[in-house]
Amino acid sequence: MEQKAVKQDLIEVRTLLSLPCRFDTGPVMGRFLRGLRDEKKIWGTYCENCGRTQLPPMQVCANCKEETSYWVELPDEGYLASFDVIVIPTLNPLTGEMRKVPYSVGRMVLDGGDAMIWHLLDETDIKKLVFGKRVKAVWAEHREGRIGDIVHFKVLDKIDPRARRINE
Amino acid sequence: MKRNRNVAIIGIGQTAHAGHRPDVNQVEMIHEAVREAIEDAGIRLKDIDCVVHGNMELFEGVHQPDMWHVIGDGAYGKPGIRITTGGTTGATLVSATDLLVASGLHDVVMCIGFEKQEEGQTTTGITAMADPIWGRELQTGALTGTTGAIYVRQFGERAEVAAAKLRVKAGNNAIRNRKAHLKLKLTIADVMNSRMLTWPLRFLHMCPESNGACAIIFATEEWAKKVKKPVWMKDHVTVHREETFYWGGPRKMQSTHNTAALKIYQRNGIVNPLKEIDVFEMYDPSSWWELDWMKEFLLLPPGKNMEMVEKGETEIEGAFPINPSGGVVSTNPIGATAAIRVAEAALQLRGDAGEHQVPKKLKTALASGFGGTMWTVLHLLTHDKPWIL
B133, A23: Cβ pair inside 8 Å? Predict the structure, then answer.
């Protein structure tokens, strides 16, 4: 049987897939999120073997594939290592709504080590977003143990002298 | 490394990839690629022992589409495996299929990668791939300008022109490829003036959302004897490191591309990839990444990639052709995309690429796959039988 494709037979069926999810953090990520919620503190896991501090924290060092050694409290400021300014609107799968643009995300090196955190930035002007700019966390009034407990990182008008260029 | 058996690619099939395919459903679409692969191999569907199937489930939101697709791919009653490793799906399909034949478990195995992207929400699907507790809030599909930003910082406008030149090349190559989706005749100015997505990544730098499928049939030496032009799988390697994503910090990280390349070259005695590899089908989600990843895959000294692009050396007629097919920026049915790299590399080695055939003697081809979570697959293909067993 051959069915010729005629226009009136080519029907488009529209559906909406919505998946309510509830993710368990486990004790390590849970400790980190409790730090954000109850203490306004950022806790990372430190590996004595390679000296790396990991954020978000993990029980196993991603470099060494061995158990990390202990928790370290990290300052909520540092410098900007890379960033993206997104100007195209896309759907946020967490809410089902379109994201407001422009918005920007960055990877920040926190002071006192090599721990990096990935979060939103408050600046979307690429002239002001320079690698190595100092950044500081802005905390939410109401915190509930999730990423939004830090609203974003504020980009300060100051370059960190320790900032290293990526391609050097 | 030791192989049990040589493995040949004996059949290749692709749909004509397109942005809209309202004339077929998923089953009918993959069937087009399967039929072409079977005809190309000159075998019958019943000769296939096992079917390996893959795509990104969240793109169309269909769980286990392989069950629905049985009627279109001839998998009924046969052993089958389903693989879904993100952007690398197509490459992992090839690796698994190669292993199924090499191991001696099956003699003839077909892999099928597909995506019907217009049916779902690709960027949402990719965003939902990120870690649910931290990353999803921050990820924007596969869109990132980080690599471009590094190049602009280092080379200024020269980098923007180089990235645009690569996009122009991709369009020119795609025009010569009858299966390609976007066949765009562009100028450098067209690319540099196209809409900004995430600075300095622009609309024309980025790969499209395509509908299409790719089927490849792998077989033993005995089966390969019955085929006019088999090409051979020499080696493959997979590297992934999503948990150590550590971009731009004080700690240096070796890229998964670089790690994979060093490993496959060392295992196969390749000292100078630019001389010893004849054609490279690279998974290039954006022209910025093609520019940067040339350096990572081909072990180039800093700046050499810029020079090669400026001199047009990676064009079809150039000294080191990259993506004669037009690449991923021209054609991107994601679950098939990385398999198309292998299929196109094989067509080049066979001399069957048609108008986009590289006009020289080709003995060795490299094909790469990439997934958003820092995941690299490399395949090394040869014109001549690679292993004496």
Answer: yes
Q: Residue B241 has which token pair?
A: 């490191």
Instruction: Return the closest-CA partner of residue B68 out of B31, B18, B106.
Output: B31
Residue B272 sits at the chain A interface (C-beta within 8 Å): no
Secondary structure letter of residue B134 according to DSSP: T
Cβ distance of B249 and A114 shorter than 8 Å: yes
Rounded CA gap, B312 and B273, in Å? 18
DSSP string, B192-226: HTSPEEETTEEGGGB----EEEEEEEEE-HHHHTT
Domains of chain B: 7-123+210-224 (3.40.47.10)
* pLDDT (tens digit per residue) in A68-124: 999 999 999 999 988 999 998 888 877 888 989 999 999 999 998 888 999 999 999
CB neighbour list of residue B209: distance below 8 Å, 6 or more residues apart: B19, B117, B118, B122, B332
A119 touching B, CB under 8 A?
yes
Measured between beta carbons, which residues in chain A are less than 8 angstroms from residue B137?
A: 92, 94, 120, 147-148
Q: Nearest C-alpha of chain A: how many angstroms from B40?
A: 23
Element (H, E) at B94: helix B89-102
- pLDDT above 90 covers what percent of chain A? 66
| Contacts for A7 with CB less than 8 Å, ≥ 6 apart | none
Least confident piece of the model among A72-81, A138-147, B62-71, B274-283: B62-71
Which residues on chain A are in Cβ contact (under 8 Å) with B195? 88
Tell whether pTM > 0.90.
Answer: yes
Q: What are the structural domain ranges in chain A?
A: 24-74, 76-168
